[in-house]
């Protein structure tokens, strides 16, 4: 599908007829294009549209390059970011003269919100370079929102792990399995956003080089610098968030180990407490003819009392030492 936009009163307007408005089109958005649509754009602009396989290559030379007078920049962007498992896929931005061409096979939210805003408000997006900067700014804003939401979720997980539990029942009800799943989901999300920011950081550096070569306006170059600083700060925040998630993972595993050790300690103490009574019972259960207490009137109460005392003494000792 091809969406084309023209400038109308300093606003973007969607047009359906590329043949009639071809000279006025400043942005062509190719969403999951067919071979025929790719050929149509190539014949219109005289540049080669990268294939999906070429867009997915990870080397810098395949993502940032100049060809046939066009400047091609590819970044990995997330879509379906309402959940913790976003769909990551490359998006290519191509500047050809005064026009911007975007090629994508998924739908990041910025590609929905930015055209709507540019159609309603005069954003100064009147050429391919200004549209590209505005679109990248919308993408960075969206990534910032994702990181903010992930940060709030991580704080909630942190409180759930470290908050004081007033009762033993509340401690037992803490589901470490769900905590581990939540931590894993947040790490996947933070890692995906960090990968996207790294690709955008490289794109912004290449775009700054292009701006110097093509003599873009001073305002555009200033916006590119601001965009680079924003991406760098978000990348630092994503790294911090990943480090905090790793800390929470280690803390959760440590608490699981502590609870397991506490359970093992209870069984160990129980075994020690019942060991002396077992020894007393074993002694008086031996089949010898001469055991004085067997014919003693108070032999049975004496044996029972001895077993009780031998169990109480270790229990009292453990309580006194704070082991229980």
UniProtKB/TrEMBL annotation:
Gene3D superfamilies named among the record's database cross-references: CorA soluble domain-like, Magnesium transport protein CorA, transmembrane region
Stored InterPro entries: CorA_cytoplasmic_dom, CorA_MIT, CorA_TM1_TM2, Mg/Co-transport_prot_CorA, MgTranspt_CorA/ZnTranspt_ZntB
Keyword Transferase: no
CDD domains: EcCorA-like_u1
Keyword Transmembrane helix: yes
Keyword annotations of the record: Cell inner membrane, Cell membrane, Ion transport, Magnesium, Membrane, Transmembrane, Transmembrane helix, Transport
Membrane topology of the entry: Multi-pass membrane protein
GO molecular function: cobalt ion transmembrane transporter activity; magnesium ion transmembrane transporter activity; nickel cation transmembrane transporter activity
Localisation per UniProt entry: Cell inner membrane; Membrane
Reactions catalysed, as given in the entry: Mg(2+)(in) = Mg(2+)(out)
GO CC terms in record: plasma membrane
Residue ranges of the TM segments: 262-286, 298-318
Pfam families given in the database record: CorA
The family this protein is said to belong to: Belongs to the CorA metal ion transporter (MIT) (TC 1.A.35) family.
Role description: Mediates influx of magnesium ions.
Protein known as: Magnesium transport protein CorA
Organism: Mesorhizobium atlanticum
